[in-house]
Amino acid sequence: MKYTPNIYSNTSAFSHPSQREFKSLLALWFRNHQTRKGLSGIEGHRLHDIGVDRAQAEAENYKPFWR
Hints:
The protein contains 3 helices and no strands. With 67 residues, the protein is an all-alpha fold. The chain has a domain at 19-61. The model has no long low-confidence stretch (mean pLDDT 82).
């Protein structure tokens, strides 16, 4: 019988993110939070200019930052 090492023995289905990936994720979450809060403060006619109505802006504002 020939021995073949299991090259996948030290890996898991879910690997931990690197520090760079984690920082990128935190930056994305912060940007989501900031832009959604900013969107909620825009006046109705300006929302219309960017193609968003008040209901869409409010729905976006209530999303959790990680989405």
